[in-house]
Design brief:
9 strands; two-stranded antiparallel sheet; 291 residues
Length: 291
Amino acid sequence: MHTIATAKAWAEEQLQRAQIKSPRLTADLLIAFVLGWDRVRVISHPEEVLSRDAWERLQSLITRRTGGEPLQYLTGEQEFYGLVFRVGPGVLIPRPETEILVERAIHLIRNQPPGGTRFLDIGTGSGCIAASIAYEVPDCNGCAVDISEAALRIARGNMIRHGVSGRIHLIRSNLLDCFPRVPSFDFIFCNPPYVALKDCGSLPPEVRNHEPHRALFGGETGMELYQELIPEVPSRLRAGGYLLLELGAGQADEVHQLANDAGLSVEAILPDLQGIPRCLVGRKLPGVFNG
């Protein structure tokens, strides 16, 4: 018979031996997951007895976590910008750095003239960018594209979960291929694959071995997706429209130049909490470039 207290002690020990970060938090979250509780309830009821099924499920999850599988794929969820998103091996796990892009996008959209803003989210993955923005700004709408059908299925579920599916059209496409060169969007967002293939070995094993490589790697240098995408953006942006791009470490100067070469005015490059330039904000100035 295992109580929450004894199960937690066992789980923490296994996680510590495997050098998993935050073993106590991880143990709490996985126990909460198998019981269908929140963490506070787990902490406050150490005497509660686990059923045999719950104990066996916990053992299986701990084995998978000590083997390097991300916690978010085990629970199937990740919090992002105050919302909980369904995730799985077919999509990149949403990260706090991407909230910088979302926060600036919401600020800019709220300062647009009334009448409904139209946006495009490229490489939507779990849909966290598009759904978060649509959730926070109820009068905006748009499209979200991804080349992966598996990712679109997960994104569709997240749009429904957060009540924004009626305002976001999901499309399977590579970048901007499905859109004619006609100014149609006020905002274009993209968190592209930007890790260089040569840097694969430097990634944590749980990222390298479990998250989708198509969503991680941007080619040999990590710049290939920016080079393909940015020149195509101005022809799809309305005059005064914005491009917001997440950046990899060390890529800000080169992406800035690509945006300038495409006729976009770079208004800001926003740092993350570590001071790394993380989000480029470019704008198509009225009358300057029409694609």
